[in-house]
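seq:
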Amino acid sequence: MFPLVKYFSLISAAVVGLAMIVVTIVLTKTTTDQLVEERQNANVALTQVFSNSVWRRFRGHVKTSAELDGSALRDHARSQELLSEVRHLMQGLSVVKVKVYALNGNTVFSTEPAQMGDSKRENRGFVTARDGRPISEYSNRAKFSAFENEIFDVDVVSSYVPIYGADGRVEAVFEVYDNVTASLQKMGERKNLIIAFVGGLFGLLYLALLLIVRRAAKILQHQHNQILFAKADLEQTNDQLFQRSQQLEAAQRTLVQQERLATLGELTATVSHELRNPLAAIRSSVHLAIKRTEGHDLGIERSLERAERNVVRCDGIISDLLGFASEPVCQPQRIGGDDWLGTTLDDMVVAEDVTLVRDLSAPGAELCLVPEQMRRAVVNVFENAMQGLAETSNITRPTLTVRSLVQGDNYAIAFTDTGAGMDGETVAKAFEPLFSTKAYGCGLGLATVKKIVESHNGAIDIESQVGVGTTVTMSLPLSHEFERAA
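struct:
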């Protein structure tokens, strides 16, 4: 689930921190601007006082001294008088320096004598004030020359204020440096209180939102858990439905199989009753005809032999039907697996062009089985392999390998041929009753084999690849496992 509280905490803390930085910057700028504006108004008023009380006596000196250099200005008697007047006027105030500029920008007076004669012609503050508009700026000075001595780490507001004559024209520019360190400190304390108050509000808001988000996260987590539980229940229900569907499909297949077997049983009874006797009569007649025509060379010998073979084939089909329809009687005997399998293979007829390879690798394995029934199953698989090899013409040397081995608690018999093989669809239908790919036969061979093997608590499997060959494996429980299952 998305970690809502974690990301909210981080992002909200970052937003609150950024907001506090912005508030601090804005509040500092506002405080400084307010202080500069207040001091500028005070300096304008101070300049007016200076103009009213002192300027009329020194205006002529300022005009006539506009072109003098610093040395001449410092030695001028009127400069000393003006310095005395200014000190007296500024006594008790926070003003730490005063300058007077002629209209040409020359510093005709300064409480710091060394600055007399400096030109401020291009200075923005001087130009603005000469045009009739007062202007101020704030600065922090590490070292500053005041009236009496030098001061350090001081905050000052310097104001350029125009001095007007009787005709309303600007006659000079008055610059006042005001020490605002104490005022700025007090305003800084008020600013810090405001920042702390705003920070506290932000903190309370952050905590309130955090509590809300935590509560929302718990609700979402609960809903998420409910969804997971519902999903698990739904998946369990789906699994149950799937299992039930598989059970129903298996039951349906079993029912269909039982119906087919019931139909086959009825058919078998009918075939057994209606065909066995006529076939016996035909077989006897054909045999008699062969005997009577023997040695007379009538040209019908091959036809009679073919008729006899087909009668035998029909009788075999009837036997397969009867064998599949009847329930095998299981009266097992304890026998050695490899010994019994070797004896069974000895009775098999192997075509001349087929190589039979025996690989009996479980000499000590003992089985509980009905020998005749299991022999029928082995013969059926063996003959199927032989027929498949006979129908394959592109094999240099057809081979059938019969192998036995112990796999866990089972005795396995594997028949591997190098015939044409089968595709997946044919393999899937191989054990279905009445399914056959041969031109003759009733398709009950492997179905009968499967029935016999399963009656012995065993299993049968087919693996095949087109163009490579087929392996049929019968797995039978060893004697102790068979007895335990029984």
